[in-house]
Design a protein that fits this description.
- The protein is of the alpha+beta class.
- It is built from five helices and nine strands, in the order βαβββαβαββββαα.
- It has an eight-stranded antiparallel barrel.
- A hairpin with a 6-residue loop joins β3 and β4.
- The radius of gyration is 18 Å and the shape is globular.
Length: about 220
Amino acid sequence: MECVVQGIIETQHVEALEILLQGLCGVHKEHLRVHELYLKSGPNLGHVTSEVRLLCNLEHPEPWTVKHVGGALRGAGAEQISVLVRNMVESRASKNVLRWFYALGYKLDHELLRVGSAFHFKRGAWITVTVSSINKMLKLHAIDDTVPVTLGIQVVEVTAPATSENYSEVAAAVSSFCEYLAPLLHLSKPGVSTGVVPTAAAAAASLMSDGGGTTL
């Protein structure tokens, strides 16, 4: 399982967000350049509820990551928390894994190139924050021939692994951490559009002037 929230930020404020994240987490950012392939099941597989994503980290091309993203947690408890909790299984595979999925009857639905930065740290839970531009390919697998999906906007995603026993604690840790980012962006469950923060420019200017402050 994993807990996840998403939001968007204007590209001009990304540097300020990275300064804030570095100050909060005490870790340096990692460069992010990931080729993402989204697969859909063929008719011979019947109804498959999980979404399959193949991720190739272009900074370290081997191994690939296979993510099976299942349905979100439902019920009264899920509605009361601000974080999406969903089933997710992640594994590693060789670059030939795409052929294997094709042989099973999966088809390529779409592919994206995600470019930006990532922060990995422990703060009540193991949390990963990615800040990235999303780009689509103009030709099949053409990672050097892309155009941005949303010009001038970058996507921020906060995720943390969880289990059926501890997801409440992990969700609380993610929610608590996200409060520190509130001056720059709104974070919510994926699929819920909250737009940009009107006062982000002032918050970004303050962060840039003091260098992010001290590590908390």
